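User: I'm putting together a teaching handout on how sequence relates to shape, and I'd like one worked example. Could you take Helix-turn-helix domain-containing protein from Gracilibacillus oryzae, show the sequence you're using, and then write out its predicted structure as tokens right after it?

Assistant: Happy to. First the sequence, then the structure tokens directly below it.
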Amino acid sequence: MGIGERLKQEREAKNLTLNDIQKQTKIQTRYLNAIEEENFNVMPGSFYVRAFIKEYATVLDLDADALMSEYEKDLPFDKEEKVVLSRVNSSKKNKAVTTTPAFFSFLPSLVVVLLVIGIVVVVWLFQQRPFDGNDNSADQPTEQTSEGPGDEVSMPPENAGEDQQTQDSEEETNSNGTVTDGNEETETEPETETTITLDEFTGNDLTYSLETNEETLTLSFETTGQNWLNVENANGERFVYETLTTENMPIEVDITEFTEVYVKFGNPHSINMKVNDKPIELPAELSNSSDPHEMWINIVK
């Protein structure tokens, strides 16, 4: 016996219809029927298969986790999810560990030492060079002191090594082609993208798919007249249950943590709905309709 037949027997034993289950779970009847027939190909994805089965089992007072474990081999699992996991693991394994050779760690100190030696040698050579006939110092009396020429050698400033190390660091950074501002590197922010697609329109029921990489999602409602409005999440938790008017608009709902949004609204010809700044386009057939409609939005991130 498969998991679909098991759920069907439990439902019939409680004298419940698929419409009864739909009212409690807000899952469309066609998806419930697909679960009982184990026709998972019509579902939006393997995530929704598991989520819907858990909701179905909970309504029937079954242990959802135990049921999922018992029929785990019968449930689908997207290949794409496996590929993503394997890529993440392989990238961690194949990430090259870069180490700096020991020679380069001593390079700044070596440069400083050579620089000091060079300065000392240049000063010493300057003191030892012969004076030519144009030097007027020979005609002037010299003051005899007990100090030798070596006492006139000037040492480089203490921060000479630090300045040279900073210069080497800047040259290395520029050679790598990295644009810097002080110690901060410029980074390009990834572009955000949200698409909303109408998957199905039957009678007064509409089903949309929302794919996005945005961190926060806000569903907003505006109107040019009046619209009855009911907004719930996949668990049936209600967030809006009132009349939308031009005086209390916009009405906004944070759906960042939602996997599915259920919206029931009237007078579709006068209502405007958006997710962030992306409008939800209603079919042209609703432009003159005043009947209440039900809408499901499946969110994929």
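A couple of points you could highlight for students: The longest strand covers residues 194-202. The longest helix spans residues 102-128.
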